[in-house]
Design goal:
The chain is built from 5 helices and 3 strands, in the order H-H-E-H-H-E-E-H. It has 120 residues and is of the alpha+beta class. The chain has a domain of 81 residues: Arc Repressor Mutant, subunit A. A 3-stranded antiparallel beta sheet has the order 1-3-2.
């Protein structure tokens, strides 16, 4: 997903390709467990964590947490690196920045649309 492809302007919504690019990220974040996991990885010292580091606050098995982290990785929200028997996850800040830009653009377009409606 690249910033230039997801620029929202008044009178222009996302294309099918643009929507397809952002949907997996939003779907992955829509799950409360995955959203919490993403925040746990981001907040972990050093900015990376393995399942063994972050499973404590969850009432889920390590395989279930690994599955949720895999979904986040497939969506591009985290990257992973295998070290011996553990896989370490790190937040993909570029993907989060792009989502932030998209949502900011959307809020701006909605604000401009409402402003135009008030002028009429």
């Amino acid at each position: 997903m690249s910033n230039k492809n997801l620029l929202l302007l008044p009178g222009r919504g996302l294309s099918g390709d643009e929507t397809g690019a952002v949907t997996p990220l939003l779907k992955a974040l829509a799950d409360p467990v995955r959203l919490r996991l993403l925040s746990e990885v981001a907040a972990h010292p050093g900015g990376e964590a393995c399942v063994c580091d972050i499973s404590g606050p969850f009432e889920l098995s390590q395989p279930t947490i690994s599955h949720h982290l895999k979904v986040l990785r497939q969506a591009g929200l985290v990257t992973s690196e295998r070290r011996a028997t553990w896989v370490y996850y790190r937040v993909n800040t570029e993907a989060l920045q792009q989502l932030s830009v998209l949502l900011g653009d959307l809020a701006m377009v909605v604000g401009e649309t409402r402003s135009c409606e008030a002028d009429q």
